[in-house]
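Good morning C.,

I know you're traveling, so I'll keep this short. The sequence:
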Amino acid sequence: MASIKEHCERLSTSQLQALLREEAEGRGAMLPEVILIICDILSQRDPSLPDLNQLLRQLCRAYL
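The tokens, ready to paste straight into the viewer:
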């Protein structure tokens, strides 16, 4: 059985973006871990996107 990451890696970029768009608009119900997996995959596919680890560190710093 494929992992969630493996399943997401099989989806096209536009499919992954559509899933994130639903979340951003409040219509989705994905677990935060899945959202992070999708963001990581998208950042690997498009080097112009920010690195997920850097963004997570910035988010953590915002709450310190």
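Safe travels,
E.
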